[in-house]
Fold this sequence. Notes:
- The chain is an alpha+beta fold.
- The protein folds into 2 domains: 3-100, no CATH class; 116-179, no CATH class.
- 40% of the residues lie in helices and 19% in strands.
- It is built from 7 helices and 6 strands, in the order αββββααββαααα.
- Strands 1, 2, 3, 4, 5 and 6 form a 6-stranded mixed sheet that branches.
- α4 (124-134) runs parallel beside α6 (157-169).
- It is elongated.
- The two termini are 34 Å apart.
- The mean pLDDT is 88.
Amino acid sequence: MLESFFDAIGNKDLSEFSSVLFNVYEDADSFSIEACFDEGALVIGREQPYVICGSDTPWKKVEKKVGKALEKYIKSNKKLYEHFDSIAYGFVDGDLNYIRKSEKKKETKEPVHFTAEDFRELAPAKLKAWMTIYLTSEASERSLKEWFMVKFETLSEEQLQHWREFLADNFDYEKYNKLK
């Protein structure tokens, strides 16, 4: 399934890299994969995508198949990947699955505090997604009926601004910092 992809990776000197993300794409007629080292310093498979299988395969099955293949490949090429801090895979627009996750402690940063203006750049659907995830439990319970069934894509700028302000005023920073 991914032999030629793995061969292309094996032909590169990866000693200078510390992380790799295997991005899976769903194209019109197939699923494909690329390897992105150190946030794009080296990318294998972007110009000439490596096809995994046809698009008739369910995405969840593709993700599982890719995960098993990657784990097997990395396990059988331990020397090549032993110095990597982070190895992950997933659909480019979805969650990441970690084979190895960096254990380095992040630098302590100033606490984040969002304003409605910070949410202005979010597309309406993403604003709704953030509300689903980051509203405090109290605010969510209090207002769920008001906003959950609304198609945010159809709202006016004024209505969107109302929901941006609502999210800013009722943001669950504890949850945000846990998920971050």
